[in-house]
Amino acid sequence: MIYKNVLTELMKSRRSVRKFKPDKPPLELIKLAVEAAVAAPSNSNSQPWRFIYLEDATKISALADLVEAAVNKLSQKIEDQEKRGEYSRYATYFSFFRHAPGLIAVACKEANYLNYFLPTELQLVQTVNPELCSVSAAIQNLLLMLHASGLGACWMTGPLIAAREISGYIGLKEPYFLAALIPVGYPAEEPAIPRKKELDKIFVIK
After folding, report:
1. Planar angle of CA 156, 160, 163, nearest 5 degrees
2. What is the Cα–Cα distance from 177 to 82, expressed in whole angstroms?
3. What pLDDT digit, counting tens, does each position of 136-178 carry?
4. pTM for this entry
5. What angle, rounded to 10 degrees, do the helices at 81-91 and 57-75 form?
6. Parallel, antiparallel or unpaired: strands 102-109 and 176-185
7. Mind giving me the DSSP string for 116-138?
8. Sign of the dihedral defined by the CA atoms of residues 169, 170, 174, 177, in that order
9. pLDDT digit string, tens, across residues 46-75
10. Distance CA 154, CA 164 (A)
11. CB-based contact 127:104 (threshold 8 Å)
12. I want to staple 104 with a disulfide (CB 3.0 to 4.6 A). Which of 7, 118, 169, 182 is the partner?
């Protein structure tokens, strides 16, 4: 019961942190978080994840430049001025990781184990990617362990607008693809508790 209470408090107190102190987090804490990540369940125990850690400010800034370039390129293709403005304001969140002292690039190995057994004419179109689900479970473990270690982090998918360019920069090659960026560091803010849907709105018993 005590363990349950501690875990519940950890999950409920975790926040998405977007502002960090300049201090670099100890590498030991990053490794500890990755160890927690790979303890997650995965499809057929495929363990399709890979974690690439950057702590060089120049490299992190270079990735932010790639994201902003991709944002600007897409923005120019939006003819409606109002929608372009809305998109540009929203996309400012895609590169805030520029000032993070650490950055974890999470990759997923593309595979389809179910279709492996089937001839081409019988292969299934899956609406859910089992490997990406597995990596998502690992990311949740990662975030919780970073939080338990006194670090802040944020699960980012917005930067994937420049996934190809980022992958090239960090040397990520097929069959892996970029699944998320996780900026990490000591929090320089205390985000407010986000509003959550009430349990009776999302939990159904039949």
Report:
1. 135
2. 33
3. 999 999 999 999 999 999 999 999 999 999 999 999 999 999 9
4. 0.91
5. 170
6. antiparallel
7. HTS-GGG----SS-HHHHHHHHH
8. negative
9. 999 999 999 999 999 999 999 999 999 998
10. 21
11. no
12. 182
Crossing angle of helices 163-170 and 57-75, in 10° steps, is: 160
- AA identity, residue 68: E
φ, ψ of residue 116 in degrees (nearest 5): -55, -35
Given the DSSP bridges, would you call strands 49-54 and 102-109 parallel, antiparallel or unpaired? Answer: antiparallel
Write the burial class of residue 156 (CB in 10 Å: 0-12 exposed, 13-18 middle, 19+ buried).
Answer: buried
Half-sphere exposure of 197 (CA within 13 A, CB side): 5
Tokens encoding 131: 């490997």
Alpha helical stretches, state H, 38-162? 57-75, 81-91, 113-116, 130-148
User: CA-CA distance, 44 to 74, in Å (whole number)?
Assistant: 38
Distance CA 99, CA 64 (A): 9
- The answer to whether 191 touches 185, Cβ cutoff 8 Å, is no
pLDDT at 85: 87
Q: What DSSP element (H or E) covers 8?
A: helix 2-13
Structure tokens at 94: 């895609």
